[in-house]
Amino acid sequence: MEYFLQQLINGLTLGAIYGLIAIGYTMVYGIIGMINFAHGDIYMIGAFMAIIWFLVTGLLGITWVPLAILVMLVLSMIFTATYGWTIERFAYKPLRGSQRLAALISAIGMSIFLENYVQLLQGARVKPLQPMVQGGIAVMERADGFVVNLSYLQIIIMALTLALMLGFSQLISRTELGRRQRACEQDQTMAALLGVDVDRTISITFVIGAALAAVAGVMVTLYYGVIDFYIGFLAGLKAFTAAVLGGIGSITGAMVGGLLIGLIEAYWSAYFSVEYKDVAAFSILVLVLIFRPYGILGKPEIEKV
Amino acid sequence: MASDKTPLLEVEHLTMRFGGLVAVDDVSFVAADREITAIIGPNGAGKTTVFNCLTGFYKPTVGMLRMTRNGSEFLLERMEGHAIARVAGVARTFQNIRLFANMSVLENLLVAQHNKLQLASAFSLAGVFGFKGYRKAEREAIDQARYWLDRINLLARADFSAGNLPYGDQRRLEIARAMCTGPAMLCLDEPAAGLNPRESGDLNELLTFIRDEHKTGVLLIEHDMSVVMKISDHVVVLDYGRKISDGSPAEVRADPAVIRAYLGEEEDEDLPDEIAADLAGKQEAGTARPEGQG
User: Which parts of the chain span the membrane according to its record (chain A) (predicted)?
Assistant: First the structure.
């Protein structure tokens, strides 16, 4: 029971991170129907930004941890968002209107480029970050001394994700920008005829997606304490799985899918084998694609003839 | 005829070629402000192509499209789609219905007003937090939407999903949505297609209301002669991409070139009878159905 609870906490934390990345996939897919395979690497950029800005806060002498984390978070989001915008502008926008496959291949190319770019600039070795937030709350204790621990960092990650999700769903359902995005999602030409700047709306979508991925990157850096240039590949694929599982194009679906993938991974590692946790996650992808290709919350797409 | 009125849109020597096919061939006409200008012609005459050039879907091979709005001139052929709508004030509907089916009726009308809202919301940041200025702007946008919903009798269904409305209501909602962009010219591509006589009567009323009360020019592609002859101030007739007649409905109706284009010189006899009857003046028949897509 205690062990189960601990895995629940771990799984939800991991799932929150996957969910944040998955939103980026699902939003971009919703609006331009493209799987942005470079999105995992955007998250990796976010993680490196976290280390860079951590060093800068150190240089500036900001030692109060909450402020340092806030500075890291905000600056990483801004800079990663700029990456997102630039990538869209150079790698995808010129291909808009051509075949879907062209943009997809461009995305894969962008992913390879980003990995190598970071490898060249930052080196191939693993980057460590000393733990900034330590301690936690002992939720429960078993007779043999096993303590169910909810660390402060896990609380931060879950609370931040929850806050971002709430703010974000407000943005989509209530604001003018959200309406604009939903309109572009359904009919770009009609939206343009109503005066909506479709290109800008798409750019903003990429910027928001990248900013959320940056949050995930910063959190992962704080959580695990080590990153390298290759973390984006696997995390990206898993977040993509989460997006497909939840129903690609659905924002809530992305979050639900992220949490499920996180939980599956945590429980699989705990009760079966850590080595095969990726197999578990990707088997889900296979099963979903076979039995419910539109995901948990997605709607079956009816092709109009 | 139109020379004494303020020109709203001047089309000069518009030519659109697709490879070897000349869809529109050297067409010039003037649509005056606060008038309903109808573009008619048999199927494949190039009417929709003219619209597509006007709204930036096609870049014309040759020609100039000059739009005059509040004293400033815009060359539509050089502008991007959203700027045509936003800056030059051209709004358009399509032959098929293109509402945002998954959004509510109200939201459809709010999307059309997003320019105002965008500025007021400081690019949505204020919207998330519900600041005062944004709330005010949004209330104004909702009032505007409510005004049009009232006009088209859909106020009670504001929260319905647009895709679930009956066909005739969807047609009118599209026109209302186009009007919410605050256009100087409204381009309607076969708005009466598929409407029953009563619905097309409502449409006539809506269009004359738009012309008279909102001081908006209307450019209309229509096959339903009961609509065209009754409400247009000015009719342009196209055939095989060329303009064959231009004038008041009465003038056009009497033009031998128009009658020839509709009746044909040989063969096809089954379809055009109805249209010929309409052209000959039986406008009130009301039974004329659109003969399909142009």
Answer: 12-35, 42-62, 68-87, 99-118, 152-172, 204-227, 239-267, 279-297
B245–chain A nearest CA distance, Å: 29
Interface-testing mutation among A172, A179, A180, A193, with chain B (most B C-beta atoms within 10 A):
A193
Confidence of residue A44 (pLDDT cuts 50, 70, 90): very high
- Chains A and B: how many Cβ contacts under 8 Å? 84
Segment A91-98 shows an average pLDDT of 88
Q: Note whether B91 contacts A: Cβ–Cβ < 8 A.
A: yes
Distance, in angstroms, between A99 CA and closest chain B CA? Answer: 18
Nearest residue of B to residue A180, measured between CA atoms: B111
Domain limits for position A22: 2-175+202-233
How near does any CA of chain B get to the CA of A43, in Å? 23
Q: Which of A2, A1, A19 is nearest to A263 (CA)?
A: A19
Asked whether the beta carbons of A18 and A88 are under 8 A apart, the reply is no
Q: Which domain holds residue B272?
A: 1-89+183-294
Q: Is the pLDDT of residue B128 over 70?
A: no
User: What was the pLDDT predicted at B86?
Assistant: 82
Q: How confident is the model at residue B280 (pLDDT cuts 50, 70, 90)?
A: low
Q: List CB contacts of B213: < 8 A, sequence separation 6 or more.
A: none
Query: Torsions phi, psi of B272, nearest 5?
Result: -70, -10
Cβ-based contacts of B96 with chain A (< 8 Å): none
Average pLDDT, chain A: 89
The domain tally of chain B equals: 2
Contacts of A177 in chain B (CB under 8 A): 118, 121, 123-124, 127
pLDDT tier at B294 (50, 70, 90 boundaries)?
very low
* Domain-embedded: residue B29: yes
Same domain for B68 and B191? yes
CA distance B182 to B265: 44
Reported pTM: 0.82
B96 lies in a domain? no
Pair (B126, B156) in one structural domain: yes
Which of B159, B181, B203 is where one domain is finished? B181
d(CA B35, CA B57): 24
Tell me whether residues B100 and A174 touch, CB distance under 8 A. no
Q: Which tens digits make up the pLDDT trace of A125-143?
A: 888 888 888 888 887 777 7
Which three-class secondary structure state does DSSP give residue A232? helix
- The reply to whether ipTM tops 0.85 is no
Which residues of chain B lie closer than 8 angstroms to A180, CB-CB? 111, 114, 118
For residue B9, give how far its alpha carbon lies from the nearest alpha carbon of chain A (Å): 17
Report the first-to-last Cα separation within chain B, whole angstroms: 27
